[in-house]
Amino acid sequence: MNITCIQLSLQMLKTVLLLSLLFVSVTSAANKPISQVPINTHSKRVALVIGNSRYNIGNLKNPENDAQAVRNALTALGFEVDYFTNLDQKSMVQQVFDFFHHKASLSELRLVYYAGHGIQFEGKNYLIPTDANLGLPSEIPHTGYMLDELRRSLDGLQQGASIIILDTCRVTICPVGQCRGVLSSLGLSNERKSSGTLIAYSTGPGQLASDGGENEHSLYTQVLLELLSTPGQPVEKLFRKLTEEVFHRSGGLQKPEFVDGLMGAEICLKAGLLEQCP
Predict the structure, then answer these.
(1) Which of 227, 114, 122 is nearest to 185 (CA)?
(2) pLDDT single digits (tens) 175-203
(3) What is d(CA 67, CA 52) in angstroms, rounded to the nearest whole number?
(4) What is the DSSP track for 196-227?
(5) Torsion of CA 269, 272, 277, 278, to 10 degrees
(6) Is the dihedral of CA 131, 135, 141, 147 positive or negative?
(7) What burial class does residue 193 get, using C-beta atoms within 10 Å of its C-beta: 0-12 exposed, 13-18 middle, 19+ buried?
(8) CA geometry: angle at 211 spanning 61 and 225, to 5°?
(9) What are the phi and psi torsion angles at 85 (to 5°)?
(10) Helix or strand or coil: residue 165?
C-alpha cells in the first residue's frame, strides 16, 4: 500500500470515528432522561384547556367559567393555550390529537386541564364529551374519550414534562348537576405512576368534587387559580398546598390528590428571585 492509500485510509478511519461519535452524541441526546432536560420560565410551554358544562344528560354550572379562568392564568404565565368548551366526542378527539401532534410534541412543558364529567369503566378512565351516550355501559368506550391514551402519548415524549389536572368527580353515583361525575360501576381511578407526568385530581377515590354551588368556580379550581402564580413554587409543593387548602375549606369533605411522576429538577410555573426555581 503506497503512502497516498495509507493517508486515504487514515482519513476514512478518522471520518468514521467522527461520525460514530456524532451518532452516539445524537442518540444520547434523543434518549436523554427527562430528569436531565432543563425546564425554566423561558422553555416552550403549551396547554390544552377544556371545560364541558352543557351535557345531554344535564348541565354543570361552572366548568366553562373554570376553563376560561385557567386559560387566562396560564396565558399570563407564558403558556400557549388551546382553549375549548362543550366539546362533543368527535371534536374532543380531534382537538386532543391536534394539541399533541402540533404543540405538545414540540414543547418542553405540557399542561392539560379538564373540567367536566369523568368516569371509569372496566378499568379504563374516560373524560366525558357533551354528547356521550351513557344509557348503556357498553357505549361508554365509544362515546367517551379515554384518558389513558392521552397519558400514554405524553409519557412517550422524549423530553420535558407533562401535567394533567382533572377537576371531576371520582364517585360511583353522582347526582346530575350537583357534582362532576356520572353513574359508573367504578370511580375514576389513579393513572399508573409515569415518568415525566404529574396527574392531579380534584378529589380522592370515591369522593365528590363540588361544582361550586353559587360560586363562580369550583372549590378546587378557585384554589388552583389562587396558587398558580405564586413565584418560586415547585409544582409538587403547589399541589400539596392545593390539597391541604381544599381539604380545609371543604371541612374535610373533599381531599384532592396527585400522582407525581415527574423526575429531576423542580419545575416552577412562575420563577422566583433571580428567575429560578428553588
Answers:
(1) 122
(2) 455 455 544 444 455 555 555 899 999 97
(3) 9
(4) SEEEEESS-TT---B--TTSSS-HHHHHHHHH
(5) -140
(6) positive
(7) exposed
(8) 100
(9) -130, 150
(10) strand
Of 167, 191, 189, 188, nearest to 179 by C-alpha is 167
Q: How far is Cα 98 from Cα 80, in angstroms, rounded to an integer? A: 14
Place of cell 470515528: 17
Nearest in space to 117 (alpha carbons), one of 248, 211, 221, 7? 211
* CA gyration radius, the chain: 22
Cell of 252: 374535610
**What's the grid cell of residue 170?**
371520582
Q: Which residues of 229-240 are buried (b: 16+ CB within 10 A; e: fewer)?
A: eeebbbbeebbe
Cβ count within 10 A of residue 214: 5
> Hey, which residues does 47 pair with through a beta bridge?
81, 111
37-82 confidence digits (pLDDT tens)? 446 555 799 999 999 999 988 888 899 999 999 999 999 999 999 9
Sequence letter at residue 89:
Q
- How far, CA to CA in Å, does 9 sit from each of 13, 15, 22, 140, 242? 6, 10, 20, 66, 65
**Grid cell listed for 90:** 368527535
Which is nearest to 128 in space by CA: 55, 208, 66, 235?
55
Q: What is the 3-state secondary structure (H, E, C) of 74-129?
A: HHHCCCEEEEEECCCHHHHHHHHHHHHHHCHHHCCEEEEEEECCEEEECCEEEECC
**Interval 11-23 mean pLDDT:** 39
